[in-house]
Amino acid sequence: xxxxxxxxxxxxxxxxxxxxxxxxxxxxxxxxxxxxxxxxxxxxxxxxxxxxxxxxxxxxxxxxxxxxxxxxxxxxxxxxxxxxxxxxxxxxxxxxxxxxxxxxxxxxxxxxxxxxxxxxxxxxxxxxxxxxxxxxxxxxxxxxxxxxxxxxxxxxxxxxxxxxxxxxxxxxxxxxxxxxxxxxxxxxxxxxxxxxxxxxxxxxxxxxxxxxxxxxxxxxxxxxxxxxxxxxxxxxxxxxxxxxxxxxxxxxxxxxxxxxxxxxxxxxxxxxxxxxxxxxxxxxxxxxxxxxxxxxxxxxxxxxxxxxxxxxxxxxxxxxxxxxxxxxxxxxxxxxxxxxxxxxxxxxxxxxxxxxxxxxxxxxxxxxxxxxxxxxxxxxxxxxxxxxxxxxxxxxxxxxxxxxxxxxxxxxxxxxxxxxxxxxxxxxxxxxxxxxxxxxxxxxxxx
Length: 447
Known about the structure:
Blueprint: E1 12-16, E2 19-23, E3 43-50, H1 55-62, E4 82-84, E5 90-94, E6 101-105, E7 108-112, E8 121-128, E9 131-139, E10 161-162, E11 179-184, E12 190-194, E13 199-203, E14 209-215, E15 227-231, E16 244-249, E17 255-259, H2 268-273, E18 276-283, E19 288-296, H3 300-303, E20 314-320, E21 325-331, E22 336-342, E23 379-384, E24 395-402, E25 405-410, E26 437-442
Parallel strand pairs: 3-9, 7-10, 14-15
Antiparallel strand pairs: 1-2, 3-26, 4-5, 5-8, 6-7, 8-9, 11-12, 12-13, 13-14, 16-17, 17-18, 18-19, 20-21, 21-22, 22-23, 24-25, 25-26
């Protein structure tokens, strides 16, 4: 049991999954949103907010000694995905790689890791009234039980990691993962997707990496867990920071993972201008990708009126709503729309010319893939979240609560912003004020 918080911070100790966990305070920061006047429109029925918990206390409660200075950062970033945990109001969530930002030095952006010892974690939460409580958390570890960390993997592919002020280089870590999507299998293990590889990661119920599935030809060496080159090699052309982001589990146990953005194929300029990305189906039983689908974004100014930069389009969440049906979230940082799609055999492009990086024009270069004979997934708009009052920005996780209700979770980036002003002269975080929230949205026509 976790009592109500008394004051702004209040840390408890408990035991989660057999390990000590510094948990957790709750603090009410948002009230239940009022319904709109018309029940015929999508509406917010609940908003709940995560209270403040020092990131060092959270991390060291899971793996003692991993964080020596959290620089005033609170637990956040758990909104990378959300998945029902089997009890009403309870969900599994996952952090991303940890607090990170960008600072320009000599005209070039550097990727900063203010808390380099942070270890990504799977976090179980409960939505109770207008409060989000952390029930327990599972650190992601290597075969020998060490933290994987969120640091960049490879100097040849990933951004160089730096300290909070972008002045001191940090070491790369072959174990590092930038986790995004999460689902829980029937055997209580977890599946995650990662942006670095990009990769699909199988994790035990206690957080140990059982296998990391990466694109053929990645050549990741030095990891303290099994690395299996099982994904199409074409994924090596993922944009920096735009790897695999969404993950869904179909009723038969197969997984569907979404590439956040179009591939940089043949180059970054094409990738930034393209509106065609890819979904992949993976069989845990076969340990192989069994299908691949072309997915076409709507124009960026349709998804986000006023935005004209196509590269701002992303998929952040995919949700199974039937044997072969998904909800796909198209978004920018400001708004999002959910589309219903059906996976059909006729739309499978796996192993065809579009999986070769020598095909010209590439899938990403086609202005109209359908006209070129590419089977693009059909889609139907379910809800434009930008028109629903009370939905925050940067929604990265979507879960189905019941027939007509969705739970949305935002990524608050641990309260960080980009730029040197993200930290004060003492090296303490200047918090953005953006909180982690879980928002329930009811749809009048169901899902």
